[in-house]
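FORM 7B - TANDEM STRUCTURE REPORT

SECTION 1: FIRST PROTEIN
SEQUENCE AND TOKENS:
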Amino acid sequence: MSENSVYQFNVQTLDGEEISLSEYKDKVLLIVNTASACGFTPQLKDLAALKEQYKLEKFEILAFPSNDFGGQEPLEGAAIATFCENYGSNFPVFDKIRVRGPYAHPLYQFFNDRKRNGKLKSIPRWNFHKFLIDKTGKVVDFYYPFTKPTSAKIRKKVNRLLAL
């Protein structure tokens, strides 16, 4: 397994099960830090629409709730799952994590270290910061919160990666 791949990381599901991101091998991934009480929260619907658009493809969205920005994720566990279902979520939502600072989850420390990921240095500045990952688990790009998941910019890049 490559050291500059997201497959080296384990994450926890909302019900506490630890899984390896290597379970998503050979899929294009969009990894997003989410929050239920944010001005960008309606993007959960856009994420569901994007997932639906690529449902027959090797594509997955992975959502990581975070309370790092203005305390905008007050929910825990099953309450997060229920909230996301209200927006039609059709993608995995993981346990709440830190995405910035010294206690950031190792996956997000990886996104912030160009030497480790081989591509970029990007710390989320707010909720709904998105990272695009290719089928080999390598970081390809990132998008700021104001870039909608259904934007042409994201869809074009997803299409290119799926064609590889």
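SECTION 2: SECOND PROTEIN
SEQUENCE AND TOKENS:
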Amino acid sequence: MSSITISINGRPFTIACEAGQEQRVADLGAYIDKRVQDIARAGAASNESQLMVLTSLVLADEVFEIQDQLNRTQSKECVNPQELEALRTRQMEREATIAYSIAELAEDIEGLAKRLQGV
């Protein structure tokens, strides 16, 4: 077990961590401190407790947003490739049917126009 001291809002905190994880904890501490400073500069908190709560909410919001993006990505990737190919084939068949129907309608309209001109 190891430990590292990080600084959040000018206050030192000694954090215990697994050996070899010191840099990761230092990076996380620096990220949190930056977010605290951003919120403090914005004047969004009236005291340190409120500043820490607001920062926690901002960080939690970031985590939730990332989780939502991951869930949406995984949902898209869960489509079976064979099902996707079958959907594409059906779509192409529908488009071909629509194109054929349009061509038939065009012929009918041309025939009708010729008959009307002959009248």
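SECTION 3: OBSERVATIONS ON SECOND PROTEIN
The longest helix spans residues 81-118.
Strands lie at 2-8, 11-17.

SECTION 4: SIGNATURE
Preparer initials: ____
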